[in-house]
Design brief:
The protein has about 290 residues and is of the alpha/beta class. About 40% of the residues lie in helices and about 15% in strands. It has 12 helices and 11 strands. The strands form 2 sheets. Strands 8-7-6-9-10-11 form a 6-stranded mixed sheet, sandwiched between helices. Helix 7 crosses helix 11 and helix 11 crosses helix 12.
Amino acid sequence: MKPQSTIILEGGLGNRMRVAAAAHAMARRTQLPLRVLWLKQWGMRCRYDDLFDSPDPAAANFELRDARRAEPLCFARPTLRNLYLPAAAQRLRFRRRIDADSVIPLAQQGFDFEAWLRAAPGLLAAYRDFCPWQPDDLQRLFRPNAATCGIIGALTQAFTPATIGVHIRRADHQVATDASPLNLFTDAIDAAIARQPATNIFLATDDEPTKHTLRQRYGRRIICSDSAATRDNPDGLRHALAEMVALSRTAHIYGSAASTFSQVAAALGGKPIDILTRQGRAPLNILCTPSP
């Protein structure tokens, strides 16, 4: 096999999934050998195999796996906390590197990531997709394991064809909090109920007061997890993944501004989605293209 480029997944669950899908699409289209590493670090305090079964990539030259042996030390994001030592290790192994914070500015400038990867093996860290991908890329790489499937089954057992999905992002996401206030979601829910009185609502949120408010307003129409959202351990992230998959099985999704989570859910299930903002319904910011 030709020397591999290495792609490091950064950020939270949805961001990692979109980057891995982009990498798989790149490998499938170009036959470039790519290794994609999942590190247990900031934004994702669990391993890939805590959440998923082994991937089934369409590209034989593609590898997605947990970092092992010394790789978590070598490929960690260089920060003051680790004295930037991973940067030195990465420079020794790779002459060509793109760090995660450079991906968006480069993409906005029209940078050709494919040409960069073709030129020679390199190291790319990313929390944003760098080339278009298809739902099949997600579906092949991210197959929930048995523990996660059990949670998904419990969340979706009361779903009907009239179940809509609502993802309200809060916690530390100030853009979503400011741009997508609660009244936009209640207006969308009320309109959906007016169109179809049998509508019920699957609610995915990281905010307990929001959960309480919507339960008070809509009563038994609300379906949601009884567990408080946490992203600090494998069990909490397993519940987050289950909520994403549950969203993907609703008839229509309403999502929060600047949040990848519900957009990846829509791509995973091939479902329509509206991003609700004060300025109106925003466009998607993921590079997902319909399956051919």
